[in-house]
TrEMBL record:
InterPro entries: AAA+_ATPase, ABC1_TM_dom, ABC1_TM_sf, ABC_transporter-like_ATP-bd, P-loop_NTPase, Type_1_exporter. It is found in: Cell membrane. It comes from Hwangdonia lutea. This is ABC transporter ATP-binding protein. The chain crosses the membrane at residues 32-53, 73-96.
Length: 609
């Protein structure tokens, strides 16, 4: 009893239709009601035609049938009109349903994208998010419209069932409950099967994602060079195949169990149907039913069985669609931790300073403190440099400066105001970054640069100016289509350039932005020394009131900075000017003296050759 109660509770929870119906209603703007009305009309016409058919048979069975000839013709015409009406209504219904299904799919697809755009970066660094996204994408777009079709079919079938059921009860009342009893086990195993599929879907998502990842390594552009040069293709292919085989075998096992259980219940149902037929035939032989009744029974009974089976199918499919839709709601319900303040402060455009005060930081899904008590200042109009070994926390610090994460404790302030008090989008507009792993947009040169400030109309002179400053103009001017050239090799007529040339484009993008601060995270690492020097000279000259933060391993890129911070294991180990830091003989001096020695050794080796 307790078990059944639990099952009913679970069924109720999974069949939470309210949200889905609300969603459908809001997307179709209530027009879904037309589909429902048409389908109800369809059912009524169908039932009417059945009734006319019964009347016709009764006339044929009458001894004085010749006198009712006109009436019989009238019934035949009525049945014909009903048949044509049915075709028209069902075509209309299927067109409208398709239209709504299309609208709903588009909405869901777009909603998935808008959620992905709105979510904090922390989600993108958590496998749980990608599992949720994967499930939502797999389960998503068609489910709400499928649910709509399920509900309409259930209503339609129930209406038909009522009318035919009444006819059947008039023949013999036992037949209806008996038939229902035979169909119920099928419904039960289908619902159970849906639960199994749901659990399996959750369980298999990480493996499915891994197999997709492996496939993208083999088929995609990003890893192609290394896969081929290290000869990794067949190794990864066999890893992929093993995962797919595991998934396939488990899919087959679950499906086999589902099909077997269904087959058993179907046999039960068929036995039920034949028992009923035997029962009614015996009662006819006893003279307890009219010929009209028997004819009606033979027409109606198989239909009724079909409708009941259909109902069981629709209910289980409705249940399945609903629980799978919960994957979509899992995504819809994700909430950002960083929220805009109720009354955001306006950002000063008066060249404020950017400062970090006692900042500590630990990644949300990790427990190691990555930044410890950081105090740092990027004044307007100054170039500040940040150096440190790999893993010392420089990129993490940039993520905090861009407000992709909030500090665990301490504060980041712009012009003395905690950045949490600004609207996040407004604040982010103040910072433009050239990331170490910048994006190579396979789009036009103009778009690649314009993305630095997408909030305003493209300013083509400024785009060119930014490209000149970053050194990208040098090669863009050689393209026959100039700034309209598509970059990269993914699309037709795209132009591929070297990594250093891509980097110049990324720098142009940052320069095009109207932000008050620019951050270069190893942004000149792929440039030759001359290009790098030119960029920094130019920056110095045109810096104006902008604050610049440069992260680099090259002495040439940092030594002219106004102020330098040295990071070590998440802490600021040293700070000051280049001259001061070199004289201190600490981490900074070691870092650059070692580099100098390596460079000197290389030169002497080359000389010896
Ligand atoms: P740097 O840029 O100086 O090379 P990072 O800021 O990238 O250093 O990394 C600092 C530390 O933070 C490293 O120990 C690294 O393992 C850890 N870390 C970096 N990114 C993440 C992340 N997304 N989640 C958890 N830990 C991270």
């Amino acid at each position: 009893m307790q078990n059944i109660k639990k099952k009913i509770e679970k069924l109720k929870k999974n069949l939470n239709l309210k949200r889905t119906l609300g969603l459908i209603w809001s997307i179709t703007k209530g027009k879904v009601i037309y589909t429902v009305l048409i389908m109800i009309m369809e059912s009524l016409v169908f039932m009417g035609s059945l009734y006319v058919f019964k009347l016709l048979i009764d006339i044929v069975a009458l001894p004085d049938r010749n006198e009712k000839y006109d009436l019989a013709v009238l019934y035949i015409i009525a049945a014909g009109i009903a048949a044509i009406t049915l075709v028209v209504l069902s075509s209309l219904a299927s067109y409208i349903t398709q239209k709504h299904a299309f609208l709903i799919s588009e909405y869901v697809d777009d909603k998935i994208h808008s959620i992905a755009i709105a979510l904090d970066l922390s989600f993108y660094e958590s496998p749980a998010y990608f599992n949720t996204l994967n499930r939502a994408k797999n389960a998503g777009p068609d489910r709400p419209s499928a649910i709509l079709t399920n509900i309409i079919s259930i209503v339609k079938n129930l209406m038909t069932l009522t009318v035919i059921g009444i006819a059947l009860i008039s023949i013999n009342w036992v037949l209806m409950p008996l038939l229902a009893l035979f169909v119920l086990p099928t419904l039960y195993v289908r619902l159970k099967f849906a639960d199994k599929l749901y659990e399996w879907q959750i369980q298999k998502t990480p493996t499915e994602r891994k197999s997709k990842y492996l496939s993208s390594l083999i088929t995609g552009e990003v890893a192609a060079k290394e896969i081929k040069s290290f000869g990794l293709g067949h190794y990864i292919r066999s890893m992929y195949k093993n995962l797919r085989i595991y998934l396939l075998l488990e899919d087959l096992r679950i499906n086999k169990k589902g099909i077997t259980n269904e087959a058993v219940t179907q046999i039960l149902a068929a036995a039920g149907v034949y028992s009923c037929i035997a029962y009614i035939c015996l009662s006819a032989l006893n003279g307890e039913s009219s010929i009209g009744d028997i004819a009606l029974f033979l027409i109606v009974f198989p239909q009724l069985f079909g409708i009941m089976q259909g109902l069981s199918g629709e209910i289980s499919s409705l249940y399945k669609n609903n629980i799978f839709l919960s994957y979509l709601y899992d995504l819809f319900d994700l909430e950002n931790k960083m929220k805009d303040p109720q009354k955001p402060v306006l950002i000063s455009q008066n060249s404020p300073d950017l400062t970090l005060k006692n900042v500590h930081f630990c990644y949300p899904h990790a427990n190691k403190t990555v930044l410890k008590n950081i105090n740092l200042k990027i004044p307007a109009g100054k170039v500040v440099a940040l150096v440190g070994l790999n893993g010392s926390g420089k990129t993490t610090l940039i993520k905090l400066l861009c407000r992709l994460y909030d500090p665990t404790s301490g504060a980041i302030k712009l012009g003395g105001e905690n950045i949490k008090n600004f609207k996040t989008d407004d604040y982010r507009k103040q910072i433009s970054v050239v990331f170490q792993d910048f994006v190579k947009f396979n789009m036009s040169v103009t778009e690649n640069i314009q993305f630095g400030n997408i909030h305003e109309e493209a300013d083509h002179d400024f785009i060119k100016d930014s490209a000149i400053k970053s050194g990208a103009h040098e090669y863009i001017k050689e393209f026959p289509d100039g700034y309209n050239t598509t970059m990269g090799r993914i699309f037709d007529n795209g132009r591929e350039v070297s990594i250093g040339q891509w980097q110049k484009l990324a720098i142009a993008r940052a320069l095009y932005s109207k932000s008050q601060f620019i951050i270069f995270d190893e942004a000149t690492s792929a440039l030759d020394a001359k290009s790098e020097q030119e960029i920094f000279d130019d920056l110095r000259e045109h810096i104006g009131n902008r604050g610049i933060l440069v992260i680099s391993h090259r002495v040439s890129a940092v030594k002219h900075a106004d102020y330098i911070y040295v990071m070590s294991e998440g802490e600021i180990a040293q700070e000051g000017t280049h001259e001061k830091l070199i004289s201190e003989n600490g981490d900074y001096a070691k870092l650059f003296k070692r580099k100098k020695t390596i460079a000197a050794n290389k030169t002497s080796e080359n000389g010896a050759e």
